[in-house]
Structure formats: C-alpha cells, structure tokens
Write a structure and sequence with these properties.
alpha+beta, OB fold (Dihydrolipoamide Acetyltransferase, E2P), de novo design (two linked rop proteins), 2 domains, 3-stranded antiparallel β-sheet, 6 helices, 22% strand, DNA repair
C-alpha cells in the first residue's frame, strides 16, 4: 500500500516496545486512526517533538485495518501558547480526549475536525473559558448526532415553546415541568444560549452567565456521560483548575 499525506491532530500517544510509539490521530481524510511510529522514541530526525497531544500535523501514513503505519510528519503547529498556560493545557487535553473517546475509528468527520482545530486555535490565543468549553461540547454532540433536544420533552414528547418551564432530566435530557418536577430547572436564558451555540461557528461569540453555566454544565455533562464507558481522565485536572 502507498502512503498518503493528510492533515491530522494528535489525540493521544503511548510508548510501545523499546523505541516505538503508538499515536492516535484524528485525520481529516480518514477520521480517527491509530498509527505505529517506529523508532519515534529514539529518532528526532523523523518525528522530532511532533508526537504530542493536540499537535496539528501533516502526516505521511499507510492506512491499514487495525494499526496503520506512520512514516513521517511535518509540524503545522504545536500550539505553543497552549503549552505555556495550565488552563489552556487542561481544556485542550479535555477536548482531544473527548474526541478520542466519542469518535469511532475510521469515520471521517470534517466538521468535527474543523471544530477541534478552531477550539485549539482559540485556546492558543488565550481563550480558555468555561463558556467556550460548553460551546465546544454542544457543537461536538450536535455533529456526532447526539444533539440535546431542547424544545421537546424527552418524557412525554410535548413541544416546549420558548417561554415554557423546562427541567433537566437524567442523561442530558430536557423535560417539561410535569415530567421533570424533581429535576433541576433550566431557564429560558440558558436554553437561548445553548441554541445560540449551535447557530454560530465562532468561539467567543457566546458568553454564559455564572447562573447559565450552572444549568448548562450539568446538562451537557449528562449528555456526554451517557456515551462514555468510564470517566474522562482530563476532567480531574480541569476540576483542580476550577476556582
């Protein structure tokens, strides 16, 4: 098989044998791919310091079922300013781990690739905020087909007008006041901001108030958690950074 050249973001790496490394890549053309980088732990000439989480690369790859072969890389950017800021490191690590855990192997998702790159670029420019994290999550769920149904009760199926009372249910569901009488309330402002997240493609365009974050955060966490077999490792680091 002939190698192909493709743009990629490093999601994770793992040492393998004495000198090799297994790298999980989110590629633009082949989706998530696991590749073996032979000699990566010894050869600075072929891979240098490129094989680090959330580096953006141009990779030379022989794609195979199972484990592909990573032949070489050119660095597009390692997002150096992210690596100088703990908050940015935490949010960047969370983003790539979330994509790694939710994205199946070998499924190209160009919209998600662009979303991830845009988020990393925003973090590199100093944009590590809770609002942008929730913006990323809402759009990621939407792209992967897990969009939260904000305007329909997950219990009885009734339509929920903009001014109707809503409650948060289990697993990131939204309920009417009757079905969700024991759930946490969702204000009209929180619902409006979540809709706005899905209506704009620009990080920094949506700012949640502390009250709205307190409502939107658990809802998004619940929606994400239903698709995870185990908790994300990066969440513990993010919690340590929280004021």
């Amino acid at each position: 098989m002939h190698p192909i050249r493709c743009e990629a973001v490093v999601l994770a790496t793992m040492d393998y044998r004495e000198s090799d490394r297994i790298v999980t890549l989110f590629t633009l053309c082949h989706g998530k791919v696991r590749g073996l980088a032979r000699g990566a732990r010894k050869s600075m000439r072929r891979f240098g310091g490129a094989l680090e989480p959330f580096a953006r690369l141009s990779v030379e790859l022989v794609v195979r079922e199972g484990l592909s072969s990573l032949r070489g890389v050119d660095i597009v950017t390692v997002f150096p300013r992210i690596r100088q800021d703990l908050a940015a490191i935490g949010h960047g690590g969370y983003a790539v781990e979330l994509v790694d855990r939710l994205l199946p192997d070998g499924a190209p998702v160009p919209r998600l690739f662009r979303l991830l790159v845009s988020y990393l670029e925003h973090l590199d420019q100093g944009g590590a905020t809770p609002s942008d994290r929730r913006f990323f999550e809402a759009n990621l769920l939407n792209i992967l087909g897990y969009r939260i149904a904000l305007d329909t009760c997950a219990g009885c199926g009734v339509d929920l007008p903009a001014d109707s009372a809503r409650r948060a249910g289990a697993g990131g569901t939204v309920l009417c006041a009757g079905c969700g009488r024991y759930g946490a309330p969702l204000s009209a402002e929180t619902v409006r901001l979540l809709h706005r997240c899905l209506g704009t493609g620009r990080f920094g365009a949506v700012a949640f108030s502390p009250e709205a974050l307190g409502e939107a955060g658990p809802l998004l966490d619940g929606a994400i958690g239903t698709h995870l077999a185990r908790p994300l490792n990066s969440l513990a680091f993010l919690r340590q950074l929280a004021p």
